[in-house]
Amino acid sequence: MGEEKLIASVAGSVERVNKLICVKALKTRYIGEVGDIVVGRITEVQQKRWKVETNSRLDSVLLLSSMNLPGGELRRRSAEDELAMRGYLQEGDLISAEVQAVFSDGAVSLHTRSLKYGKLGQGVLVQVSPSLVKRQKTHFHDLPCGASVILGNNGFIWIYPTPEHKEEEAGGFMANLEPVSLADREVISRLRNCIVSLVTQRMMLYDTSILYCYEASLPHQIKDILKPEIMEEIVMETRQRLLEQEG
Predict the structure, then answer these.
(1) Phi and psi angles of residue 238, each rounded to the nearest 5 degrees, phi first
(2) Phi first, then psi: what are they for 190, rounded to 5°?
(3) 176 with 118: CB under 8 angstroms?
């Protein structure tokens, strides 16, 4: 309290629940919640588990038993599986996963038991503050411009070319390493610059805001999007369209 006013100790957005007022800080580490979709990078291969960097205070854990085996077979994990762990995922690999449990110290346990999760192939990773990613029913979006995005709740955003056919057999281990066409690379670069400009102007990230920003940026060259005046102009246009849509 200061001069009969409530003053927050951190800068951020205010959230009210009845008489409880919380301030969600703009720059935070990711705090895991069960069911969140996250994008993470493998940092270490340990006994029966992988350590994953997910932008939280502690490394997350992906257990060998919490993932599909190649081919989708269901059986107990044997010593051979443990020896072959580096063949599935090794240090530096990017994965998409779901939060299975949150431990008392805040560490997060992940699982990739669905075919939509698993190892990520070719694309671009953008790191933003987790507070700017809007929570939605789905965080996997195939955008009409020809690329797809995974909006990780942990602030890691993965942009990749939309696959022509979904690979069901591999169980999420086969990374497609064919060359990406120039047109796809341009779309991905434009989306990446649009996301960076939305983040700079503190706009929430979700499929509609990214798509509107992409459409607003089309008259400009990809490299020009990051110029401050053009960035402001594009984001203003996106804001207007979102307001019109809501209003």
Answers:
(1) -60, -45
(2) -65, -45
(3) no
Residue 159 has a pLDDT of 92
Give the Cα separation of 13 and 7 in Å (integer).
Answer: 13
Strand, helix or coil for residue 240: helix
Q: For residue 48, what are the contacts with CB-CB under 8 A and spacing of at least 6?
A: 63, 64, 65, 77, 82
pTM for the predicted model, two decimal places: 0.85
Distance (Å, rounded) from C-alpha 84 to C-alpha 62?
Answer: 15
Q: What is the C-alpha separation between 20 and 1, in angstroms, rounded?
A: 15
CA 198 – CA 209 distance, rounded (Å): 8
pLDDT value at residue 166: 61
Strand ranges in 34-183 using DSSP code E only, listed in sequence order: 37-46, 49-53, 60-67, 94-102, 108-112, 118-119, 124-127, 140-142, 147-151, 156-161
For 149-186, write each residue's pLDDT tens digit.
999 999 999 999 887 766 554 455 666 677 878 888 89
What pLDDT does 88 receive?
Answer: 85
Average pLDDT of span 220-231: 88
Cβ atoms of 40 and 54 within 8 Å: the answer is yes
Nearest CA among 127, 198, 195, 122 for reference residue 156 = 127
* Cα–Cα distance measured from residue 96 to residue 41, given in angstroms and rounded to the nearest whole number: 9
Q: Are 92 and 79 in contact (CB under 8 A)?
A: no
